[in-house]
Amino acid sequence: MPLVSVIVPNYNHADYLDERLSSIYGQTFTDFEVILLDDASTDNSLDILRGKIDDRTRLFPNRINSGSPFAQWNKGVNLAKGKYIWIAESDDVAEPTLLQTLVDLMESDEDIVLAFSQSMLINEKGKPLHSFAENYRYLYNSDRWEQAFVASGKDECVQYLLTNNTIPNASAVLMRKSAYDQADGAPAHFKLNGDWLLYAKVLIQGKFAFTPQVLNRFRTHGNTQRHNARRSVHAFTEMISIQNFIVAQAHVDQNTLAKARQQVAEWWVGGIAHQTWFRKGFWKENCQLYRAFSPHYRALWLRILWHLVYASGWYVLYITGLLALAKKIRHWLFPGKFFNPQSQQS
Q1: DSSP E strands: which ranges in the chain?
Q2: DSSP secondary structure code for residue 54 in this structure
Q3: pLDDT beyond 50 at 340
Q4: What is the H or E stretch that residue 230 is in?
Q5: What is the predicted pLDDT for the residue at 231?
Q6: Of 77, 290, 79, nearest to 181 (Cα)?
Q7: Contact yes or no for 329/126 (Cβ under 8 A)
Q8: What's residue 342's pLDDT?
């Protein structure tokens, strides 16, 4: 039996597959199997994947698109034979020592259910943008993720996952298959944050390990779900579900929960202007979110009004051709990933 099962879920990433698969087969750790999944791609992905089948590689293509990346994760894990699971997203790239480093961490302590490394964000062409360490510093004003550590998964859920997914990319993660199974897999009905809920369900079971070594390159481009997250209400209803799960599994005081709800409400308000206003369900879905957030956020309606005025100002800059200049000024005033014009299109 292989120690690690590498699951490669693919959909229309033919342009990146050769680089991705080379970074898998080029690992210094070699006791692994590879499970290739294709979710009815419309490009030539399947031809590329068929050329990779060998004694340790199996291919399982779908005739009809599943509509869910998390359903594909579950399919791969159900087929896996290894003790550990690596979900290697098909557009990302691994450093040669990623698996060896994470396996060593997992093998050092049976209570560790998950280990992950630092990630470098890259663009469509593979150009490095910045380490995710910059995101951590921006969000938390902390150097916590700049050194290796092992910590309680339950504490991580209460202190961090209640408001943010501190594990940014599945390609940087190694999990115990037993913990994945005990979590009942990833939520296939989730559209955007299924990884976040899965990590919470896994972390509740034990400890986790982190290494600050940049062993994963996380590709960001227009063909990702994250890119369109702000335009969908699904992201926010899912975040509420994640918070409810953590509250049910660990002690969370009301003040902490209120702050977490307020943070998600801020993101929701910031995304309203980017939604398609005249689609079916727009008013009903957003009214439901308003009712969920308003008990924790005083004068929420006023915050919404202010943001719509603010967004209108950005639209005026767009139609007058001054938006690029405004973004440069914003980046100069507030340096960091979230206002970086090279890595964000907002």
Answers
A1: 4-10, 32-38, 57-61, 84-87, 93-94, 112-122, 128-131, 149-152, 173-176, 207-219
A2: B
A3: no
A4: none
A5: 62
A6: 77
A7: no
A8: 40
Domain architecture of the chain: domains with CATH: 4-219 (3.90.550.10), 226-339 (no CATH)
245-278 residue pLDDT tens = 999 999 999 999 999 999 999 989 988 888 888 8
Look up tokens 């992905």; give the residue.
Answer: 45
* 196 vs 186: CA distance, rounded Å: 9
Provide the 8-state DSSP code for 158. I
Looking at 30-39, 108-117, 133-142, which range is the least confident one? 133-142
| Residue matched to tokens 């801020």 | 266
Mean per-residue pLDDT over the chain, rounded: 90
Query: Which distant-in-sequence residues (6+ apart) come within 8 Å of 171 by Cβ?
Result: 87, 88, 89, 92, 94, 119, 216, 218
The three-state secondary structure class of 250 is coil
Give Cα separations from 259 to 159, 324, 325 (angstroms): 11, 33, 34
What is the spatial distance between Cα 102 and Cα 107, in angstroms, rounded to a whole number?
Answer: 9
